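Dear colleague,

Thank you for sharing your sequence with our group. We've completed the structure prediction you requested, and as agreed, I am returning the results in plain text so they can be pasted directly into your records. Please verify that the sequence below matches your submission; if there's any discrepancy, let me know and we will rerun it promptly.
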Amino acid sequence: MKLLQKKNNNLFFSELNPFTWVYGLGRTLIALSLLITFVFTDVNILFDSNIINSLGESNLLHNRINLFGIIGYENLYWSKIIVILILILVMLGTFPRITGIFHFWVFHSFHNACIYLDGGDQIGTILTALLIPITLLDSRNNHWKKSNSKPKDFTMFLGRLFFIIISVQIAFIYFHTGIEKIYKLNEWVDGTAMYYILQGKYFGLNNLLIELISPFLKSKYIYFLTWWVILSHLTLSFALFLKRNDKIIFFLLGITLHIGIAILMGLYSFSLVMLGALVLYLLPFNLKKISW
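Please find the predicted structure tokens below.
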């Protein structure tokens, strides 16, 4: 695969325009992660009536403006429809200045109301919040389309600055996850963690796949897989210090890691959020096309 892009200069002082379809792809993947949750999961399973009702009675502003608290537990299906419509508009790229705020509102509301969450929901909430300044600076009517006029230099500078803030956040997530594996659980250090994870009751392989790869699980190669996961996280955090055009190989590493997590552990929504994060973190803004 060959990735074609223009030469990147100094990130702060170049005329690099960050408002391209690339960051639109990141937004889309993050929105898709929550969309599949609402499309394929019964909302009555995701939410508890006591929690929803308590949101409307809370004195905290962020609870009182919670989407699910405003509409109420008895109208959960209307909430589901509203969430799906907002997420579809985000994925279509419609009016980033407006949908950027609603994108965060949906994620924040879900994160504060849902009783079943994973790390992807928290990361999605953080990233959609950090994307708000960028979407407000984006004057385009659609994040998939090229702007008819070049943004002002100061606007592009601010956009690149907020992308750096997002990159620092994502790099910290990978660094913290990698380091925490080493000092918190002996199973990661001795190389057996993936043996237990892949056979786990909740986040593991189904019986058919376990039978198929059982020889691998019981071999010494499971040690290398375990440490490959740790080193992948630490390597992805290191990419923070490289120019964006030099990060393509790390993007491919991240895709391999998170597609593996999706297939082997069934964490599809989490993996989609992280794929969106990788786009925001690693892909060049001025990526033209992918040719094979």
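Summary note from our side: DSSP finds 15 helices and two strands in the chain.

Kind regards,
the structure core
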